[in-house]
């Protein structure tokens, strides 16, 4: 009976992993399946719990370095950046005044909501800004130090 409970727990954790996509719960599912094996061999509940904890911990410790090694940004791996990575660090044109509460900028032809990265900055329409970070659908921007003569002709 204990083996069935561990299997059910393992399946529940594996299904929950599908919805989280963090590769964290699957490691506990492996521990639950190992505990089910111990239960099937007749181990007492205390030993089953120790097997669950030990296998889960070992799986996390073994998998974490591999995941960290493969989790690189496009800049680190040399790939072409896309999505938010491509936007962060790019320049933008202020369309509507940007301050700590509101604003609009144009980034690579797309209009984005923006906020000043530094709450004391107020950026006027027409200014060039640097995208520091993207939070959700809001670009956090900073006044760009480039002078108009340093900008490409198409962006002046």
UniProtKB/TrEMBL annotation:
TM spans (from-to): 7-35, 41-63
Membrane topology: Multi-pass membrane protein
Keyword Zinc-finger: no
Keywords, alphabetical: Membrane, Transmembrane, Transmembrane helix
Residues annotated as domain NfeD-like C-terminal: 85-143
Localization: Membrane
GO CC annotation, single: plasma membrane
InterPro entries: Membrane_assoc_protease (IPR052165), NA-bd_OB-fold (IPR012340), NfeD-like_C (IPR002810)
Keyword field contains Cell membrane: no
The protein, known as: NfeD family protein
Organism: Micromonospora zingiberis
């Amino acid at each position: 009976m204990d083996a069935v409970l561990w299997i059910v727990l393992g399946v529940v954790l594996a299904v929950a992993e599908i919805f989280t996509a963090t590769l964290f719960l699957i490691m506990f599912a492996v521990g639950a399946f190992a505990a089910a094996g111990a239960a099937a061999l007749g181990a007492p509940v205390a030993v089953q719990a120790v097997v669950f904890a030990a296998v889960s911990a070992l799986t996390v410790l073994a998998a974490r370095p591999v995941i960290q090694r493969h989790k690189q940004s496009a800049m680190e791996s040399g790939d072409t950046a896309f999505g938010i990575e491509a936007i962060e660090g790019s320049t933008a044109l202020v369309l509507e005044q940007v301050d700590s509460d509101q604003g609009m900028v144009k980034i690579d032809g797309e209009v984005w909501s923006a906020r000043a990265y530094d709450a004391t900055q107020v950026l006027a329409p027409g200014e060039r800004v640097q995208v520091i970070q993207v939070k959700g659908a809001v670009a956090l921007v900073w006044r760009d130090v480039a002078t108009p003569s340093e900008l490409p002709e198409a962006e002046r």
